[in-house]
Design brief:
12% of the residues lie in helices and 39% in strands. By secondary structure, it is mainly β. The protein has a single domain, classed as TolB, C-terminal domain (Neuraminidase). The strands form 6 sheets. Strands 1, 20, 21, 22, 23, 24, 25, 26 and 27 form a 9-stranded mixed sheet that branches.
């Protein structure tokens, strides 16, 4: 007879533990599968006609006014255009130039809820913010102290100086990490009122330029009150603040569409010579908040994540015009459409009916 196999209580225990671990693994896999969000492809419903869209060298802003007319910010063309509601004609309402009322080397553009707009540019090596009425009439402006270093751009995104701006009717919000906060709120006359948001820890605090580069991002006005800030570089995150500038929450941006791209991001940078700036590739290209307070974050990859007002990811979207787009700008019309550049397309953002 063969040797008898002795039974031991630990054998049964190990079997039960293995079975429990297997069941837990399958449960987690199932939960992960359920939590994955299917990509929605939104097809454009309209666009500027080719004879108008062809006028722009680099459309980096596309907004509809209350009148139904449109504004287009042509960054490379140093121009802001007005487009009639029927999309039949374009007029230069702010033109290239260093003098007041004109723009030169513009980098940032934002429109307020009452259809005024601001442009940040750099005449004579100084950073300037100018305010305009919807027809292009200059309303005021100011120069930000200090001189502009050589501008660093990566994939159409400016990585130093005033690279992003928001217009909150009676104040102007600028991402200026060199001032010690994520956002500096200026009065319309150019007085810094306050900083909103502490800089995040980066592990590179001993390298001030790199630390600031990893705190580059987009300030946004929430139509429901308060603000969002979306980090463009480093680990993708966003923060939500109330109107007093108090942090409500911070969320890490994650998704299978981004995993490989994020894993490939550098974590160390070579030594630099004096006056050289670190190149930190942006992950986020642009962002906007719709009228319901949902945050739309578009990446350098052609995907856009949509987060509800509680910071929970609800949708993964791609925009299709002539092809799949990586948006350079997003804005929302009063009827809920989303306007996207490049291409100056309009999309119905509502989920498709199943």
């Amino acid at each position: 007879m063969g040797a008898a196999r002795l039974w031991h209580p630990s054998s049964s225990l190990r079997i039960r533990q293995l079975a429990a671990a297997t069941a837990l693994f399958m449960l987690l896999q199932s939960a992960a599968a359920r939590s994955a969000i299917a990509v929605e492809v939104l097809q454009s419903v309209s666009a500027l006609p080719p004879h108008l869209a062809g006028l722009f060298s680099e459309p980096a802003g596309f907004h509809q006014l209350a009148t139904g007319a449109y504004l287009v910010f042509d960054r490379r063309g140093h121009t802001v255009y007005g487009i009639d509601a029927a999309m039949t004609a374009a007029t230069k309402i702010v033109e290239v130039g260093q003098e007041s009322g004109h723009i030169i080397q513009p980098v940032a553009f934002a429109v307020s809820s009452d259809d005024r707009f601001v442009v940040a540019d750099a005449p004579f090596g100084r950073e300037r913010v100018q305010r305009f009425g919807s027809a292009g009439t200059r309303l005021g402006g100011f120069v930000i102290p200090g001189r502009v270093e050589v501008r660093v751009q990566y994939g159409g995104i400016v990585l130093n100086g005033v690279a992003s701006i928001a217009y909150d009717d009676e104040s102007i919000l600028v991402n200026q990490p060199e001032r010690g906060g994520l956002v500096t709120e200026y009065s319309l006359e150019g007085w810094p009122n306050r900083n909103i948001g502490l800089l995040r820890a980066t592990g590179h605090e001993d390298d001030p330029e790199l630390h600031r580069a990893l705190n580059t991002g987009i300030p946004l006005v929430n139509p429901l009150g308060g603000y969002y800030f979306v980090f463009q570089t480093g680990e993708p995150r966003f923060r939500k603040y109330d109107a007093r500038g108090t942090l409500l929450f911070e969320r890490t941006i994650q998704g299978i569409e981004l995993d490989a791209w994020i894993a490939a991001q550098p974590t160390a940078w070579p030594a630099r010579r004096a006056r050289e700036l670190p190149i930190v590739p942006p992950i986020v290209r642009t962002a906007a908040v719709d009228r319901a307070g949902n945050l739309w974050i578009a990446f350098t990859l052609p995907f856009t994540y949509v987060y509800d007002p509680d910071g929970e990811k609800q949708r993964v979207v791609q925009f299709r015009g002539a092809g799949i787009l990586a948006p350079a700008s997003l804005s929302f019309t009063r009827d809920g459409s989303v306007l996207v550049t490049p291409g100056c397309y309009a999309f119905d953002p509502r989920p498709a009916q199943r």
